[in-house]
Amino acid sequence: MKNIVLVGFMGTGKTTIATQLANKLGMRYVSTDSLIEEREKRTINEIFTKSGEDYFRDVESAVIGEISRMDGQVIDAGGGAVIREENMANFRSNGVVICLTADEQTIMERTKKYKHRPLLNVEDPKLKIRSLLAKRAPFYAKADHFIDTGKFTARQVIEKIEGMVK
């Protein structure tokens, strides 16, 4: 079976939906961020702080290239994975790309308690969310399907995805 790739901004529910969807469909759950942390033997925050975002994006692209060659996975892609065209091409080569969305306020509520989000460790996280959403919108627009997770329960989102991939 082709991969199901979940993309979208942080806080849109990718991890929650991907893990539940993988369990329901009997597919393998894969988190690009977890694979990067395993490969680098350090957290995403540490990678950003010590090596920078460009380095992180290079490692991310390498991981995406590798996992995209395998079948039967639900891939939980990091929020910024879409900004590199090669990543989207790799995702599409063997999968359907579904963008999970949510409005700015929902994202703020869902992410405010997490300190492991390096891009939101700033003085005005709401402004940063707004800025990043605007910057990434054209990249997210390249997904095959879209679901606003702020309007549905996790179960409803999973049912919608099942309908999209059948």
Helices and strands in order, then pairings?
Layout: E1 3-7, H1 14-25, E2 28-31, H2 32-40, H3 44-51, H4 53-67, E3 73-76, H5 85-93, E4 95-101, H6 104-111, H7 125-140, E5 145-148, H8 154-165
Helix pairs in contact: 1-8, 2-4, 3-4, 6-7
Structural description of this entry:
The protein has one domain (about 5-155): P-loop containing nucleotide triphosphate hydrolases (Rossmann fold, 3-Layer(aba) Sandwich). By secondary structure, it is α/β, with parallel strands linked by helices. The termini are close together. Strands 2-3-1-4-5 form a 5-stranded parallel beta sheet, with helices on both faces. The longest helix is centred in the C-terminal third of the chain and has 16 residues, at about 125-140. It has helices at about 15-25, 30-40, 45-50, 55-65, 85-95, 105-110, 125-140, 155-165; strands spanning about 5, 30, 75, 95-100, 145-150. It has 8 helices and 5 strands, in the order E-H-E-H-H-H-E-H-E-H-H-E-H. The mean pLDDT is about 90.
Q: What would you say about this model in short?
A:
With 166 residues, the chain is of the alpha/beta class. Helices cover 54% and strands 14% of the residues. The model has no long low-confidence stretch (mean pLDDT 92).
